[in-house]
Design a protein that fits this description.
The protein is an alpha/beta fold. It folds into two domains: 7-156, 3-Layer(aba) Sandwich (Rossmann fold), CATH 3.40.50.10170; 158-284, Hypothetical Protein Tm841, Chain: A,domain 3 (2-Layer Sandwich), CATH 3.30.1180. 40% of the residues lie in helices and 27% in strands. It is built from eleven helices and 13 strands. The strands form three sheets. The chain has a six-stranded mixed beta sheet, sandwiched between helices. It has a four-stranded parallel beta sheet with strand order 2-1-6-7, sandwiched between helices. The chain has a three-stranded antiparallel beta sheet with strand order 4-3-5, with helices on one face. α3 (70-82) packs across α4, α5 runs antiparallel to α6 (144-154) and α9 packs parallel to α10. The longest helix has 16 residues, at 124-139.
Amino acid sequence: MIVLQRVKVVTDSTSDLTQELLAQYDIRMVPLYVRFGEEVYADGVEINNRQLFQKVAQTGIMPQTAAPTPEDFLSVFKEIIEAGSDVICICLSSHLSATVQSAMIAAGELPPGRVEVIDGLNLSSATGMLAIYAAELAQQGLPLSEIVPLVKARVPKLSTQFVVDTMEYLYKGGRCSGLQSLMAGVLKIHPMLTMSEGKIVVKEKIRGGGKKIVDRLVECIVTDKDKVDRQFIAVTGAACPEMVEAIVQRVQQEFPGARVFVTEAGSVISSHCGPGTVGILYMLQ
């Protein structure tokens, strides 16, 4: 029996979902923007993280990022509604970007009850997994009124940990002092960051790199082993495939049969954290 899908899922580019995942789950993506001086690129459409890192290395200019406009969301919402479906839009934390506000302004231009916007209070593939969860509910034929509370209930169950390899991007972006950046480089300290109430906070500092980072990130999810939803685990990296692969192999050993999404940090996420950043993100039951 073919189930009529009455709800379509929209997310923004910081969800870091691959083109294959977007196609598989029929998720529409609205890009944020990356700006180098007068040059503006759509995240995940016109620029990826490797191109971004290359431009920073060549020019010495740190990129600026910007949220989608309400019009960006409105055009996508209208297209979906005119095709006969409702919309659930899941976005990057409102504490990190105006993306949610743009989506809400767009939703307010459309008939009531047709578009629901959810503040994911998270970033990267944590938001992406919320979008996939919503898409799977939509594929089952659930109406918007039933999908929304189920997705909202999952927001506080997201767990996000990521380790920054270099403090250069945090420093040049004004997110840490020059002294902090210098000391971190000299002492080979890598901050582990997490999400708390929609904000990025330092969870701890790891001395040394490589295997120590892999071990600590895997330790985080293993600590939650009995509570992890094994259908929603993600490993995301910024141009560090070896680190990502090492973590994925360890996670698959610890959680046999688990569904592990492997994704690459987009240019917006990467412009803030820099190359070599790697994270493990998952849902709790």
